[in-house]
Task: structure prediction
Amino acid sequence: MLKLAILGFLYDRPLHGYELRRHLVALTGHIRPISDGTLYPAIKRLEADGLLTRETEPGTVAAPRHTLHLTPAGRAALFDWLRAPEDLDISDENRWFTVLAFLRHLDAPADQAAVLRRRLAFLSEPASFFYEGTRPLRAEDITDPFRSGVLLVARATSQAEITWLHDTLALLETT
Amino acid sequence: MLKLAILGFLYDRPLHGYELRRHLVALTGHIRPISDGTLYPAIKRLEADGLLTRETEPGTVAAPRHTLHLTPAGRAALFDWLRAPEDLDISDENRWFTVLAFLRHLDAPADQAAVLRRRLAFLSEPASFFYEGTRPLRAEDITDPFRSGVLLVARATSQAEITWLHDTLALLETT
DNA sequence: CCGATATACCTCGGGGTCGAGGTATTGTCG
DNA sequence: CGACAATACCTCGACCCCGAGGTATATCGG
Result:
């Protein structure tokens, strides 16, 4: 997740940790803040896996900076992930948004469309949120205003996204 | 998160682990599946903290069941959490939905309204998802269809939820 | 009566995340 | 000139989650 967001940002241009952090904060930070204790070990792991290299430059503003460059293996890992996201990347909105943020890096519109279709399939599945004993509750049966809020918002979200998915899939097919 | 969902479900009625699991799967399982290796240790932790007790009953259908009962301390912990959710519970949609699923357990409408207002404040904050170098990008500046999809869906979601929040807050004030 | 399935629970290792804390440099304001 | 903020990076322990695997009982079809 974090791992792939890092690769995605570095694909555009080499960054040093602090800049990378700003990008990550913009992408998901308002939802779920990202701490140094998460970011720097993640960078180390990626370096250890050979997906990126660090080049130390004398600090232009402050302490010496480690500019991070994606390796060919790093680019390959990014493409692999984008072509075949895990189920969690499809179902969890936060992760899904991260996939979308970098999906343009895939060059084949057919590959992009395939990913969008997986999300569409997921959103089209009926989901029941609540149970009364063993019986799943329908939206109409729920009297609690907060729980019906959950259903209302969830449905509005899927509707908006399904519409967008159809539009974008149509657009990809004309390409 | 999981912890509080467990307390929330047990508040309604005592359940054994397997039933609890079904409830949890219905609530968030289609987004993010919950594994045994997560659930049972969580139950153990709650028991160790004195928030629930386990009563072993001879299995009615299969293996002996451990029926889980909320203790007074468990009920108190649930109320504390609902009255003052963490920032992450407010900002992360998955967690927020869990808060909403159990918010009816608070008996004071003023307390419920205060929680809804925190979510409203969060959704009203302007958020920029993407940067070009150091400059935050506006929705109009984004040409990538996938990234503009992120913005479009995010905006549709907040709009729907803001409307619902206003309606529900009005409803709570008449009570 | 055998195997499959559903019920029901548990452990363990690997791995990721977090917050708290630490180090060091440069620029800015009073 | 001294304090402070911003830049820039790093470590550590605590904690939580996950998947893989294991145990055991009841029921039902063939």
Summary: The domain at 2-84 of chain B is CATH 1.10.10.10 (Arc Repressor Mutant, subunit A). The radius of gyration of chain B is 20 Å. Chain B is about 65% helix and 10% strand.
